[in-house]
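Shall we go through a protein fold together, starting from nothing but its sequence? Please make up or recall a protein chain and show it to me in full. Go ahead whenever you are ready, and we will take it from there.
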Amino acid sequence: MGETCTVAPTDETGRTAQDAPLSDTTPPARPPAEGTAVPGARMPRWLPRAMVLALALIAVFQLGSWAFHQLIGLLINVLIAFFLALAIEPAVSWMAGRGMRRGLATFLVFLGLAIVTAGFITLLGSMLAGQIIKMIEGFPDYLDSVINWVNETFRTELRRVDVQEGLLHSDWLRKYAQTSAAGVLDVSTQVLGGLFQLLTIGLFSFYFAADGPRLRRAICSVLPPARQAEVLRAWEIAVDKTGGYLYSRGLMALISGVAHYILLQALGVPYAPVLGVWVGLVSQFIPTIGTYLAGALPMLIAFTVDPWYALWVLIFVVIYQQFENYVLQPKLTSKTVDIHPAVAFGSVIAGTALLGAVGALIAIPAVATLQAFLGAYVKRYDVTDDPRVQGRRSRGTREPGLLTRARALWAARPGARVPEDGVLEDGSS
């Protein structure tokens, strides 16, 4: 009485769990391991979209990289034109401030530059052509002098006729003539490409200078007022720094031209003024290889006068180049563009590595502009008046000498008498 009866659960066959055989019991199902595919599972909805998006990003990156490499030449030309426009901006603004239209002022500036450049090239070309003709006419005399020197030095019996026939019938001369004839087309193509590049730079720089206010207005129209002030200030700094850089280059070109003119005039080399201007302009405004191009022409002209004069010109060019690199250029460039000489030198190296000769030419004004613009956002403090900042040690922190320390040890020996004022005989306490 009072006992309750519990009924054991049965399965589909009517057997209870106790009646079921041991082999029929199955372990509970385990969840699939992470990373294993579940049969019958569907692909997540976001996976196809992610794959399409990744492929699209890769395609856009490849297209952008291809377009950038195709347009790198145009971008470099635009960059050169922008800095050229910054360089002539002060002259154009000065003329526009006196009532002249900016387009006409820009045209007059470019016309003046074109006239000066054309006159210099014409004068230099006529001088070079005259010297080449003179060298060709005097070549037999030069050859005779060389043959006589060889015969006297090495006890040979060379004749000019034999040397000329050997040169005319040599395989080297025939191959050189064939190569030169085949390279005329390549040279013509390069000249046409250079003229087209020069025209592109001139057009872009003209538009940048003539429409400078409109360009600044268009840029500022998409920026908030605070950003507009920063952009205008950066533009003004870029104009000042670029003008200062060109001023320093022009001053160094003047110094270099005068120095080489004095040397060439002292040696009696013809066309010394034109050669001095050539050396000054080419060595300063053609980076990296400008020095070698500038010194080659005076050496060639000096060789027509006396072969030893060419050697003296080479020695002077090398010595002056070292003086300019380590003395004149760092000091003058750092004052005009207000950057440290080491920074100026490093910026030229970095610009050459990135953009070649163009990067070397615009590296210093670009770094000077960036340094001046970022200088306004760097908070500076007054430096404490410490002797270590001045590059010397204070007398209070100076370590005693060896003799002073020896006297102090001798006075501090056991049994030594210390004066009443506590000061030893050498002045130390």
